[in-house]
Structures
1.
Amino acid sequence: MVGKTKTGSGFKGVIYYNLQKAKNSEILFSNGLANNDMKGLIKEFEAISGDNPNISKPVWHTSLSFAKEDNISNDKMGEIAQKFMEKAGFSLENNQFIIIKHNDKDHRHCHIVANRVGFNGRTVSDFYFKSKTVQWAKELEKEYGLTQVQDIAKIRKTEKSKEFTPDKEQLKETISKTLESKGISSLEELSLKLREKGVEMEILKHSKTGKEYGVNFKVGGNTYKGSDLGKKFAYKALYSNLSPALKIATKIISKGISHGL
């Protein structure tokens, strides 16, 4: 679960944001509030925050995002959000807050809008609220057995690695075997042969001069620079090995050296 918190000076903007039609919002829970419409909620929040005009940022706005793997219900989401507010110092007896679920993203998430100014005029502290939000989210992950943020990152990194590496290794092997084939004497011929094996080879050229400077290989939805695959797959190495003129020049030079010319 990922938690993020911001504080602000006005309730109008945050209420309009969270209840806009594009978010397909659902109110899961409200406390100390009689209204569900935008204008009514704003008036109620402002009425209580006005009791302590010395507080420049009475708005507390937290978002809680849950992993797809958790498949969390609305009731459980509302319960966790209330527990979060308790940890932050808000209470059912003294504070206004509303929990709103958004249905505009693939992952399940909700927003909490709260009034830092309580019914008794006292204010909930915002001391280190950003780092504490991370701490409280981790505590709730463990308490409710939710997928932990670190675990999600590790899983996705492993999955990406599994998808990525085989493509790359297989590509290198395919190019190497193709280079060993007879009858390939240019980059264009190499490109045609690779295409037959499901590999697209792109020769990169400068837009102004038209001069060739590099190669890309595309396979399995991934694109790799020739130089990233290894030195022998870089443009200069491929061009030197495949260019007939360079091959002849290399042979002449090597013969000349062997005869002491």
2.
Amino acid sequence: MSDHGPTHVDALSHLDPRPEAPSIEKMSLDLFYGDASCIDVSHKEPHTSINAADIDEAIAKSGADVRKGDILLFYTGTFNRFNRTKEYLSQYPGLDEFGSMWLVEKGIKTFGVDSPSPGNPASRTYPCHMMCRKYGITHYENLANLDQVVGKRFTFIGFPLRIREGTGSPVRAVAVLED
């Protein structure tokens, strides 16, 4: 079973080579559920960067209520456009260093994308993954159906399996919406 192939969450040990970086079974479960919002950045072309201004614009446009301590999901449209094609693996936008730092500055506890990575596939410096390493923030990859929760406030649940020394884990990601 691949711990990074399907919809999954990365362990901090995947992002940080230090021996003290926790593997998936050692991470606090409160990172994997909680209040969440989703923003629409699907207008961004593949191989372009999502920066802080893009995030602010997406929040304003969608009316999303993003708060400190939230889980923030990014609807890039990648899953909807390219699911089950080879383009899915390389044709998506990603967070640049300013978009990544926006998450830190706003106190986002966990985030996720509907693409194979939160970083721009054209980048060779991996600023989003470097931010995650430095600040101990994890993220979900390969989410689906985010178009259905854009601009909404909901409870996100995406618990990992308890894989000993796992660098990630498949999850069944769920958005629980109030009526």
